Fold each of these.
Amino acid sequence: MSIDNGDLLVRPARTGRRDFLRAAAVLSAGAVLSSPGVGRATKPVDTATLRAQRLAWAGVRLRLGQDTLFLDPLVDSTVWGAALKDPLVPMDAGDGGRYVLVTHRHPDHFDRMAVRQALGDTGTLVCPPDMAVTAAASGFRVRPAPLYEPVLLNDFTATAVPAEDGYGDTQVSWIVSGGGRRIIHCGDTLWHGSWWHIGRQFGPFDAAFLPINGARFGWRKPVSDVHGVLTPEQAVAAAVVLGAKLLVPIHYGVTSSEDYQEVPGAEALLLATARKRKVNVELARPGEWLTWQARG
């Protein structure tokens, strides 16, 4: 009989009783099995709390100690061209662990250029299972994450939860916790019925990064003229159901066109709706770090 704990392999028949008991104590104290492409859980080198920075479009950077985790980063200026006014924030990540979480395969959320810069040579891309083959073919070290299965990334814990895509493609939202804080990042989801389940199981959240532009698409025919992304009012409703202490708006601010129309004045409408429902909002511009306090 052997007890396999990653690099630790204990064989009682070949070791003394004292050694065996010592190893068993390590296991019972919570040593964590490592998986390919996933950083081993280790004692934190820095007790700092989780920090969050808004990036362009739907992107967010999280820092915890020396490690960096990106959600839907975007640096490729050709994705939106001149329609997106957000400054594209560089993907510097420091010397610690590097991770990227992607909500779905669309190029404004799965920007291969941004992922490559963020991961460097050693980082791990975490994505829905249906994206794993495509992502690996692009040369990334990939960790598929089925719904509701926590993935340990050093001192981050990331969990994929349901979302709904405006085109019907697979999409997830990400819950990330670490350093005493927990956030949810919701890509460009539309309204769906899983908000209550997510809120009950994982809430409350210190911050919810929610799309607000209520986009209507004209690329798919026949045109539905239905919102394919959360509207400002729906984002506020989601924050209420999730128990979010802060709503941080993302995924808005492109110039509308015939084929992609945002809700006019989305930010002002969000703030007005949030005041009525007593939801705290922090408006973080691309490049700004959250203060974790209501602003706007």
Amino acid sequence: MLMDVICFVFYILASGVIVTGMFQERGPNKLAAIISVLVAMGLHITILRSGILMGSGMGQNMSMLNVASLVGWLISVTMLVASFKLPNTILLPVVYSFTGLIVLLSGLIPSAHVIQISVKPNLLIHISLALFAYACLAIASLYAVQLSYINFRLKEKNASLLHSSLPPLMAVENILFKLLLVGTVLLTLSLVSGFMFLDNMFAKEQAHKTVLSLLAWGLYSVVLMGHLVFGWRGKPVIWSTIIGGILLTLAYFGSRFVREVILNA
């Protein structure tokens, strides 16, 4: 639990450095933020390793909070790497704070959902694709929120100090569509691998996940096709991306939250 708290503190410290720097003329102290988040990520992967791997022959604990923590780590790492090239500074505090909170919750609310990947090694392919697809599309949802905020700020007459830190609208929009494309491809592969490697994707315990994932996949596909053929952009794309992210979140964590948190409580 001590390591969880320390990890949380370093994630929040990195977020604080970035947020306070946004309101200063010189901007955030990037070195301090990077050092803080790297320490947090190092502690985080150690926590994940001990929390998910249960020893030889005992399986893997893929509980809801462990999966959420793993996704948070993947998103944080991706956003940190992307920050050296892409305009995402305004999103980093949100990502780091959320990831730190998940780490803290996983320590406070222990739960177990043990699976045996060694029994079905093909299951690892499906799980990996699903995790990367969700992480990519979750980042796309964050960019959609950022795009909405930039649109809102551009329509205001009085710009705040934060306004100067906002990235160009077109740059964010281009990144959003690239993320949607990559995420949708990964989600497609995840669904295909699920139908190939799982016994019954429409079984009682899997049906909600399959249906919601298919709805999200259909929504993302329509948005991408509409952008390619008709040049769709703006609010319809933003809201569709956010709704798709909500559908995937419900698909991946909805029933698990009820089983592992509410019913156990």
Amino acid sequence: MKAKSILARVLTVISICIAIPSCSQRIASSIEKAEHFSFGERITVERIEQLNFRKAEYCPPGKNTCISYYYGSPLADANLNYSVTFGEDERENIVKINLSRDSLDRSYFGTVILLHGFRTSKEFMLDSALYFRFLGFQVIVPDLLGHGETGGKKKYGVNDTKYINSLIDNLIEEGIIKNENIYIVGNSMGAVTASHISSLRSDISGVILLAPMLQLDEAVYNYAKRDHPILSRIIPERDIRKGAILALRKSNINLKDTNIKPLLKSSQTPTLLMLSDSDQISPYASYKQLKKDNIKIFKVHDRYHPSMNTIGEIEHKAIVKWLNTTQ
């Protein structure tokens, strides 16, 4: 969405909130109707085809909504290179990978399922998907509900679980993937889906959570403080949080189900959390107290939330070290 459109929406919300005692309904509507970002500046359709990502669709039995996803096979290239720029000015991040096959101590195998964040789509995860393909994995990269080319209403990572879980079962039944060495990588809202799926299945070898989303009311409030500081000072915090709760209620989702910390505390699945000390949406400080034998937390420096969906060279070192403990 263009900056002028975002500004217009913010000004509308502010004007309404000044005029009425509570604006939580308006905030809920803004969350529900928030458009997803265009991937055009990130990657082109031609580039996707060049990289041999194959698009497919899965329609779960008894459901009216079909899941759009990409499949990618392992890469045999001698080198992997990409450089992605996020943001601008004081919030600019450049995430790079420059790897040679000779630099890898070993090769890996299995399947990695990559799940995107709120208002993005599967295309925003393709650089990270390339990274895992280079390591030796096949990848599945779906659109979550109400995002990209997948229809339906937004389900905030929670009710997406049954769709993605059914997709995994179907891929196993069709022989496209095996029910071994399955890893799930979830970014932001996608981390909610990844955590719920891991709690349901016994065939998940590991989970990687990139800047995992906090409970939705807290995530929305953090977003308002960072990107709309004037709005967050004018509108009471309780109304912002209530707006998030109302948006969930309209989708028949409980607020507590967007909080993945209880799932992480009860899980025995090997889990790697990657969090940045500069991320104001999903701060490192919010997860650093999670201490379990199966949970590893890696702190990334000076990365803002939007850039955390892409794996760079620093994260690569942490990931291969962690993978070596799971395979």
Amino acid sequence: MLKRFMLWVCLLVPMGVQAAVAQDLAVVSQMRMPVWLERDGLRTPLQPGQALQAGDALLTGSQARVYLQMAEGSTVKLGADAHFRVAALEARGDELSAALEVARGAFRFTTAAIDKVLRKRDVRIRVAALTAGIRGTDIWGRSDDAADFVCLLEGRIGVSHADGTVASMNEPLTFFRAPRGSGPEPIQAVAPEQVQTWAEETEIAEHSGAAATGGRWRLVLGSFRREAGAATLLRQARDGGYAASVRPRPVAPGVMYQVVIAGFASRDDARAAALSVERDVGVKPLVTR
């Protein structure tokens, strides 16, 4: 019985957390499932609080969102149906050095107060055919079937295209766009209302089903007397991009195995997530604390 308990307890610790590097340079602060992590050829559901490392890729589902907290104080936000990769990530003295790739979908890189430990940043973000070099700014961008583009919200960036075009952007509310299959267009201004519409694609709305480290609400997808039943539902949920785990609970007589998704900050968030689970996994979860 002890061995069985230890087997299920291991499932409570995310693979990425078990293998986390000594200094976590990029951590999942909030997320709206389903989201998958690809690491070393394996695909698993992303976990709140999980540390990312060089080589990791994230794939977000329909309506999903992810916030990544970077070590020097910036935040990377990903929208739905995104394909994102951490090409490089390291600390060089007091500087965060990162190369991030957005093959598809919307993203935002936004800057907060610089952390006391890592006071500098050297970040490059590649948006399909475009590459932006960042040293303290706020940008939004997207890659889709029509075009690749980046919009400068604050600060300045250097941006380049695969055809060799290079441009400097230092005027807020301007964007650099490259239609699919052709060269980039001249830098253009954009209305604040349009920027607000774009920004909603990467924001996690209040009570929309987000999970985060420390959230006290959870979903119970099912309870089983036998491990096999719990394992089947666990695999189904995790294949669907939901960070489910099994929690053995002693009951008389024996053990009850519950398949749960934890980490929701409010009942409303848990309820919103339950609707997604019901749609994607095919079970109606119980919302509880």
